[in-house]
Structures are given as structure tokens and as C-alpha cells.
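Duplicate of #3305? Posting structure anyway:
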């Protein structure tokens, strides 16, 4: 299919889409009340949710009746059947088993509670839940347009909305001659699948020029393409078949993506011939081992790698195993003391790969690590790529924003939005730090991005997403023609990516939520900004735990501003006291007013805490001789508190009794480097032994309301629950270890 043919098909599709009505999310104004976006921690909006779900059920039933009435279709479930004993016993069984299920679900973590400061998920938005429920009744399967004529359109709209949120420019008419490179995004079941798809696409991209060069040399049908030219990284042109394999594997990304269509346009090669070449010679069809052995190994013996920070998700080595390279070809780059990838170590890796002709498929920047809440230096990584492009090394850059991608909404301006009119919601949306903002502003330069609506988008599972800067890159992982249409009009999203069947309800949930809560400063940006504000308030509470008479203290991984600035112990203690006296006791309105008139309060509040809204911390205890210095005992305290404040087993359906919820992990020297672990151990005041991990707790504040309840800031009560639990555990640890606690705890 030529560019002209594709353009004609797309124009027909967009005309058909317009005829469906105003489905464009770009035209939705959104709404502004956080109180109307969620069911509420105490189900305050039950009537609204019940009414909306009832409306969805009624509309679905009306659609069934309306369709059947056109043809006079007869009933099956008659009044006589409903009166029969088998029917009545069946419905009674449904009621009984539903009651059992509902009782069992009472034993779940109360995600919407102020006291849930644990995992990277909180409540789901009401429109997200209602949209998912409404579409679920139709059981749409977005694997093919004929199985999902409505929800396929919704997924396309959601993809465009996510692309805009992530900083890409989505043209109003992607078929226009001046549209340029058009981004594209689609829904996946989760971020792991999105990350895996990016690896798959990067691998196929890396090997595609080799495939086409071999095919041109060996296929009679491509004899007219012997003079086919490509543009190299230095801007010069050369015949593809004259290039060595290393250069072929390091051609510009967009040049490679356009190669198939350029062959058709420049050399008169048919689309069927290009497909035949890919069928015969691509790594996709031959497999990595056979392809590398036949076409690559003699000139470039080293297999490619992917570089990612050591904070990366486990889906990355899993994805490397799935594409046939293996987890060992996932190269971890250690992070700095703030949990961000060290660019100096990445530079060393790139230099080594260039020197030894080891291809790089992809470099990953984690935007919001799941344990440290750290944002990698994406802008510097992209600048480094530009530098190495000049040396002849090319690779894709992927943003793993499964957690952090939605925070980009904080940078997106909203038309006609007036935040001053929301005095009834006294939790200000926080701005990003200068460092974090710089990384988010670099998003448009990244080639692929993962973002999970079911995390910071507050959408029901499953709803991940992958976004391509150049939408045509998706064709590299398609197992059918690049653009598939049904009836010559409607495209499908199902031929792209790893999944087959997937719920159209997921796209509908994201669509309705984005309709009400726009991914800009009026909606998700405000919502997530409030979560960051509350996370900083939680951080302040944790820092203030270490009082004169306290027996336990929290040791945050995220350093105080004074610690980052290398200040003395006395100055650090002074800043802790400043936080304890100037920030912790104040209600939100008082704190906001103080920040407005006191630059030092504003500076400290803005700079403390994590890059986003996850606080990581260990717990330690005081003995009669001072703070504990035994790492094993600190780990025991931290782990036992985690076990006390979490649920991992079915509890018979009883409502949980834990007064707070946290989760946990560890800093292992093998992942983070011994120096990293030593420095955190020193901050905690314990002696670290070689290769011994440090256990820590994780509190994700995805609650926009906890500091602005009807009774004011509720975080002190939440942290009191943590402190009380920690004291009880610490006293038991000391008793079991024969350690004397300080007075008055003896």
C-alpha cells in the first residue's frame, strides 16, 4: 500500500469518524470539582454512582430491546419461565453467591481510605468506573473493528489524548501534506506489555535496514532497487547495499521507519514485494539466532543491549528474554544518591559499545521509579544521544512513564481555567521542581513512551498504554498489512502490539474519565499536583517523628534540602526543627498563606520529598545508649512494621483492622551499588556490611484529600498510627534481643 493509498484510506476513516458525532476528546471542556470525580473515602457520592450505573444498565437494556423490536423478535425469558422453580432457584443461587463474593471483597485493602498510603494505586474515578461498566455490558473486543466499532474509535481518541498529554503534536488532519510525523498511541493491558512492545519495535527497527539490503541483493523482484539511497546519521546519502552492516544498524530512526514506503515511492517497488522481502529475510520471521548468524555476525559479532537505570521495572529483563536476547543483555546503569540514572556511567557504556561495535537497541529513562519516586535525567540522556549520533551510534530512547507519565498533565495549560475560583478546595496543586520540569519538557524528543492510565490516571485495571513519537513505528510489530480496514473505512488497533483480544471497556473507561477530568492543569494536573502536595506533607510528618522523647524515627531515602546541599549536622537538625515548627502544625490554608509571604518556607517545602509523590523510608529505634546501629535489627523493625501494616492473605472477608497501610522493598548492593547502600546506611546511623540490603517502607500518597478533610489535615492521625505500631514493634525487638530501651519505655 503506497503513501497515496494510505492517505486516501485515512481520509475516508476520518470522515466516517466525524459522522459518528463529537467523539473528539480535544473538544471536551472537562470539569473542575475533585469532589465530583470520585466516590469518596466514605462513599459520599454513592447516590451518583448508583444512579449512573443504573443509567448504564437501562441504556444497555434499551439497546437490546430496540434492536429486537425492529424485527419483532420473540422473548425467551417469559413470565412463565420466571415463575418456574428452576429459574427462581437459579436467581436465589445468584443472590446467595453474590452475597458471599461481596462479603469476601470486604477483606480487601480499603484503597480509597486516607489511611491507605501504600501501593501505587488509590481510588478509581467515577467516570472511569462508569465508562468501564457501561462498555463492559457490550463486551467489545478491540482486537478488530468489527468486534468493537465504537470502542475502537474511543481507543483512537484516547491514544491521541495521551499523545498530546505526553508532549507530542497531534495534527487535526493527519493526512494533510504538512502534517509531518504523526504520533500514535494505543491501550495495552499494562505497562509491562507496553515496555515489551517498545523492545520488540526497537529490535525490529535495528535490523530492518539489514533485512532490506539483503533482500535487494538476493531478490530478483527488487533488482530495480539496487540504487536505493538512504540518509546516514551525518546527513550524507549512500546506497543501502553499499553500507557495512554496522552503519546499516545505525541509520536514523525515522529514515528506517520510512524505508518500506520510500522503496515503493523511489523505486516503483510494490507493497507486495516489500512484504515478500520481510517474509523471507526479517528477524521477525527468521528469528534472532538465524538472522544474526546469516546476516550480521561476521561483521558485527556482538548482540545488542538495552540500557536502563538499576531502578528499572522487572518487565525490562522479561522483555529482553521474550525477544530472544535474554535478560543478561539488559544492561543496568547504577543510579545516584537521589535514585536517578548516572549519565556519566551511561556515557561509559555508550563509549564501550561504540568502540567494540556492540549495537544498542534502546536507552530507557524511568520517569517516576516505583520505589524511589525518582525522575531520570531524560534531557541529558537525549543530549548524550545527539552527541553519539555524531559519532555514528543510533538507538531509540524510551520513557518508562508507567507511573510518572500522567504528571505531564501538570504542564499542559487549560483554556479558560481559573484556579482562583476553587477556594473550597484548600490544597494547592504543586508545581514541578526545575529539575523535574526540564525532564518532562524533553518528552517530545523521546521515541516511545509507556504510561498507565490504571496508575496515576485512576482508571480501573487493565489500562496501560504505549505511545510512539512516529506512529509508523507501530508497523514494525504488525503481523498483517500496515493499515487494516474493514469495509474500506474503519481501521483497527488490534493488529499492533503483543495482545490479541483486549477489552474495549478499558478504552471506554479512560475516554469517559478524560472527558470529565482533562489531562491538563484543570484536571489530572490539578489532581496529581494535590497528591504531590500531600506527599510533601507526609514527608514533613515523617521527618518530624524524631523528637526529643521519641523511641523510633523514620529515615527518608529522599534527603532534606540541607542534606543535598552538604550542610553540617547542626544545620540539618535546625532544618528538621524548622519543618517541625513551621510546616507540620499548620492547616493547609495557614501553610499556603505562610508560603505566600515566606520564601524560605516555600523553598524548603517545594524542595523536600521525592520527585513525585512516593516517600521511601526506613525505621530505626533508640536504646538506652542511643540510636541503634545494627542493620539487622533496623531491617527487622522495618520488616515487622510492614507485615503489621499490610495484607497478603485472605482474611475471611472481614473489614481490615490495620490502622494504616504501607508496602516495602529493599536497597540491594547488587542493584544499586555498594556505595549507594553505604550512604543510605550512614544516613540511618547503622553499620552496613558488604552485600547486605537495607529494607525500607514505601508510602504512595495518591490521595488528593487527606490534608483537606472536613476536620482539616488528617495526616497527623495517619502518621500517629505508623508511629504507635513502630513503637510496639521496636519494644518487642529490643526485648527479644536483650536490649534495654530508654526511659520511660523500660
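Output from current build:
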Amino acid at each position: 500500500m503506497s503513501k497515496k493509498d494510505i492517505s486516501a484510506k485515512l481520509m475516508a476513516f476520518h470522515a466516517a469518524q466525524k459522522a459518528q458525532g463529537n467523539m473528539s476528546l480535544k473538544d471536551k471542556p472537562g470539569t473542575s470539582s475533585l469532589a465530583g470525580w470520585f466516590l469518596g473515602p466514605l462513599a459520599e457520592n454513592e447516590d451518583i454512582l448508583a444512579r449512573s450505573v443504573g443509567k448504564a444498565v437501562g441504556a444497555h437494556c434499551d439497546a437490546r430491546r430496540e434492536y429486537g423490536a425492529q424485527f419483532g423478535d420473540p422473548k425467551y425469558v417469559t413470565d412463565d419461565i420466571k415463575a418456574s422453580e428452576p429459574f427462581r432457584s437459579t436467581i436465589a443461587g445468584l443472590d446467595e453467591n453474590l452475597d458471599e463474593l461481596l462479603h469476601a471483597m470486604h477483606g480487601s485493602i480499603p484503597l480509597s481510605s486516607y489511611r491507605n498510603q501504600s501501593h501505587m494505586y488509590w481510588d478509581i474515578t467515577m467516570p472511569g468506573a462508569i465508562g468501564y461498566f457501561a462498555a463492559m455490558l457490550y463486551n467489545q473486543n478491540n482486537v478488530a473493528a468489527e468486534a468493537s466499532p465504537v470502542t475502537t474509535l474511543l481507543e483512537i481518541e484516547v491514544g491521541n489524548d495521551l499523545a498530546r498529554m505526553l508532549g507530542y503534536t497531534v495534527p487535526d488532519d493527519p493526512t494533510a501534506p504538512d502534517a509531518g510525523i504523526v504520533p500514535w498511541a494505543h491501550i495495552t493491558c499494562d505497562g509491562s506489555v507496553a515496555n515489551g512492545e517498545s523492545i520488540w519495535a526497537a529490535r525490529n527497527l535495528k535490523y530492518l535496514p539489514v533485512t532490506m539490503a539483503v533482500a535487494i541483493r538476493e531478490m530478483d523482484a527488487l533488482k530495480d532497487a539496487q540504487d536505493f539511497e538512504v540518509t546516514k546519521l551525518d546527513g550524507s546519502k549512500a546506497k543501502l547495499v553499499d553500507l557495512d552492516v554496522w552503519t546499516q544498524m545505525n541509520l536514523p530512526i525515522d529514515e528506517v521507519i520510512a524505508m518500506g514506503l520510500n522503496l515503493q515511492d523511489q523505486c516503483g517497488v510494490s507493497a507486495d514485494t516489500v512484504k515478500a522481502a520481510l517474509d523471507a529475510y526479517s528477524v521477525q520471521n527468521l528469528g534472532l539466532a538465524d538472522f544474526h548468524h546469516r546476516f550480521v555476525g561476521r561483521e558485527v559479532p556482538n548482540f545488542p543491549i538495552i540500557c536502563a537505570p538499576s531502578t528499572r521495572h522487572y518487565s525490562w529483563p522479561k522483555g529482553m528474554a521474550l525477544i530472544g536476547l535474554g535478560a543478561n543483555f539488559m544492561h543496568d546503569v547504577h543510579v545516584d544518591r537521589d535514585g536517578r540514572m548516572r549519565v556519566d556511567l551511561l556515557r561509559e557504556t555508550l563509549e564501550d559499545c561504540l568502540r567494540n561495535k556492540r549495537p544498542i537497541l534502546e536507552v530507557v529513562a524511568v520517569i517516576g521509579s516505583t520505589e524511589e519516586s525518582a525522575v531520570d535525567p531524560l534531557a541529558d540522556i537525549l543530549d548524550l544521544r545527539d552527541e553519539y549520533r555524531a559519532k555514528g551510534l543510533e538507538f531509540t530512547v524510551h520513557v518508562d512513564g508507567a507511573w510518572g507519565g500522567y504528571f505531564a498533565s501538570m504542564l499542559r495549560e487549560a483554556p479558560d481555567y481559573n484556579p482562583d475560583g476553587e477556594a473550597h478546595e484548600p490544597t494547592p496543586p504543586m508545581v514541578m521542581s526545575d529539575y523535574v520540569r526540564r525532564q518532562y519538557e524533553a518528552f517530545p524528543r523521546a521515541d516511545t513512551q509507556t504510561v498507565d492510565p490504571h496508575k496515576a490516571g485512576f482508571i480501573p485495571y487493565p489500562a496501560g498504554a504505549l505511545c510512539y513519537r512516529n506512529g509508523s513505528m507501530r508497523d514494525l510489530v504488525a503481523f498483517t498489512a500496515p493499515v487494516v480496514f474493514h469495509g474500506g473505512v474503519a481501521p483497527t488497533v488490534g493488529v499492533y502490539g503483543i495482545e490479541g483480544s483486549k477489552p474495549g471497556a478499558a478504552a471506554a473507561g479512560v475516554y469517559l474519565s478524560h472527558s470529565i477530568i482533562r489531562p491538563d492543569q484543570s484536571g489530572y494536573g490539578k489532581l496529581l499536583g494535590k497528591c504531590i502536595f500531600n506527599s510533601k506533607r507526609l514527608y514533613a510528618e515523617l521527618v518530624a517523628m524524631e523528637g526529643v522523647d521519641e523511641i523510633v524515627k523514620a529515615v527518608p531515602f529522599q534527603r532534606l534540602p540541607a542534606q543535598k546541599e552538604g550542610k553540617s549536622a547542626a544545620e540539618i537538625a535546625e532544618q528538621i526543627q524548622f519543618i517541625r515548627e513551621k510546616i507540620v502544625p499548620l492547616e493547609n490554608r495557614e501553610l499556603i498563606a505562610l508560603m505566600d509571604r515566606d520564601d524560605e518556607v516555600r523553598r524548603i517545602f517545594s524542595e523536600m520529598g521525592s520527585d513525585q509523590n512516593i516517600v521511601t523510608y526506613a525505621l530505626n529505634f533508640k536504646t538506652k545508649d542511643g540510636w541503634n546501629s545494627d542493620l539487622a535489627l533496623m531491617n527487622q523493625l522495618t520488616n515487622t512494621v510492614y507485615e503489621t501494616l499490610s495484607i497478603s492473605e485472605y482474611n475471611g472477608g472481614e473489614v481490615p483492622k490495620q490502622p494504616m497501610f504501607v508496602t516495602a522493598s529493599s536497597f540491594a548492593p547488587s542493584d544499586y551499588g555498594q556505595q549507594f547502600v553505604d550512604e543510605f546506611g550512614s544516613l540511618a546511623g547503622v553499620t552496613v556490611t558488604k552485600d547486605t540490603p537495607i529494607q525500607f517502607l514505601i508510602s504512595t500518597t495518591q490521595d488528593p484529600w487527606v490534608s483537606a478533610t472536613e476536620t482539616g489535615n488528617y495526616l497527623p492521625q495517619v502518621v500517629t498510627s505508623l508511629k504507635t505500631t513502630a513503637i510496639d514493634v521496636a519494644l518487642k525487638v529490643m526485648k527479644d534481643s536483650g536490649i534495654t530501651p530508654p526511659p520511660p519505655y523500660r
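Confirmed duplicate; merging threads. Residues 707 and 713 are 4 Å apart (CA to CA). The chain has 27 helices and 16 strands.
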